[in-house]
Structure formats: structure tokens, C-alpha cells
């Protein structure tokens, strides 16, 4: 019985699964689309079910389910008008971030990579500011949301910050190949 050898695939005959020049833009597009879908649904839910999360914002700002430490309670915002204004501002911010990320997704699909990267970065930074600085920093620490068993959104905020941060890192990975954005001597992409 003759011994047959399976030829080793050479670079010219092997079928690559995906090259870096196509895989990273595709990953960037899909990840941006995922975050765009998520924040669109969050904004839509807040608009169509206004009362549920309005109560969340009211309780966090009022600090009425925290330990009620006298050294912290002066921070509480008990005015319903200010609480509702903060909630509307959150919804507007989420909606604008969703629209920006949808635009970023569209630009990825159109293979306008430099513009897609810029727009997606803007939308992701908007989410990092809202959920990182807003919910984790201001809500979690300033308004002591971490003390509340009933009105604590730190886990949800951390998930959004983590997802947005990972996507931001992926879209800024260096690309190889002809389809990658070129960097000029000044460091800007064209």
C-alpha cells in the first residue's frame, strides 16, 4: 500500500479564514452595531416606559434608600423638577449616542473606515461618559447609589462601560493591508 502524503498548504494555496485587513473592520462594524442596538433599545425603553426608570433616577438623586448618613445627605436632590430634568437629559444623551453609533455602523458598512472610526469613537465616548462618569462616578459615589439595595444600577453601568471600552479598543487596533486607514506624518488618519 503506497504511502500518500498530504501536501502542506503553502501560502498561495491555503485559504485564510480572514486577513487582519478585513477582520478588524468587520469586527469593528459588528461591535459598533451591537452597541448601537443596545443603546437604541435602552433609549426606546426609557421613552416608551418613561415612569419606570424615572423612579430609579428620582430615588438615586433623593438618596432615600441609602444609609442616610448626615455627612452625605446634603448632596440629595429632592426637587421632582430637577430629578425629571436629569432623567430627560439622560434620555436625550442616550438617544443622541444611539444615533451617532447607528451612523458609525452605516459608515463601517460603506467601508468609509476613517470616518466610521471617528464617529464610532464619538458615540462610544458618549456612553463612557454617561455610564462611567454619570452612573458610576456621580450616581454611585456622589449620590451613594452603592448603598442602596433597591436602586443600584452600578452593575448595569459597569457592563455598558466594559462593552463600550472593549469596542473602543477594537476599533483603534492597528490595521494592516490596503483597506486600512492610512496615517499621515502628523498622526491623523485620512
Write the layout of secondary structure elements.
Blueprint: H1 20-48, H2 50-62, H3 80-109, H4 113-142, H5 154-171
Helix pairs in contact: 1-2, 1-3, 1-4, 1-5, 2-3, 3-4, 4-5
Task: Explain what this protein looks like in three dimensions.
The chain has helices spanning 20-48, 50-62, 80-109, 113-142, 154-171. With 190 residues, it is mostly helical. Helix 1 (20-48) runs antiparallel to helix 3 (80-109) and helix 2 crosses helix 3.
Write out key terms for the chains shown.
single chain; 190 residues; mainly alpha; 5 helices; 63% helix
What's the SSE pattern? HHHHH
Radius of gyration from CA coordinates: 23 Å
Distance between the termini: 61 Å
Reported for the largest beta sheet, the result is:
none
Number of helices, counting only DSSP H or I runs of 4 residues or more? 5
Helical proportion?
55-70%
Shape: elongated
* Number of beta strands: 0
Strand content bin: under 5%
Amino acid at each position: 500500500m503506497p504511502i500518500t502524503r498530504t501536501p502542506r498548504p503553502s501560502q498561495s494555496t491555503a485559504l485564510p479564514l480572514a486577513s487582519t485587513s478585513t477582520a478588524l473592520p468587520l469586527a469593528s462594524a459588528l461591535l459598533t452595531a451591537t452597541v448601537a442596538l443596545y443603546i437604541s433599545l435602552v433609549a426606546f425603553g426609557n421613552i416608551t416606559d418613561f415612569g419606570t426608570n424615572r423612579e430609579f433616577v428620582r430615588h438615586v438623586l433623593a438618596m432615600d434608600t441609602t444609609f442616610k448618613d448626615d455627612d452625605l445627605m446634603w448632596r440629595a436632590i429632592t426637587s421632582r423638577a430637577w430629578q425629571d430634568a436629569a432623567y430627560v437629559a439622560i434620555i436625550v444623551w442616550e438617544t443622541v449616542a444611539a444615533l451617532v453609533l447607528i451612523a458609525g455602523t452605516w459608515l463601517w458598512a460603506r467601508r468609509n473606515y476613517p470616518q466610521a472610526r471617528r464617529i464610532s469613537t464619538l458615540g462610544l465616548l458618549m456612553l463612557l461618559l454617561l455610564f462611567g462618569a454619570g452612573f458610576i462616578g456621580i450616581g454611585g459615589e456622589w449620590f451613594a447609589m452603592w448603598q442602596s439595595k433597591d436602586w443600584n444600577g452600578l452593575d448595569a453601568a459597569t457592563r455598558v462601560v466594559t462593552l463600550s471600552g472593549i469596542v473602543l479598543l477594537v476599533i483603534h487596533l492597528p490595521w494592516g493591508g490596503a483597506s486600512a486607514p492610512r496615517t499621515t506624518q502628523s498622526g491623523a488618519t485620512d
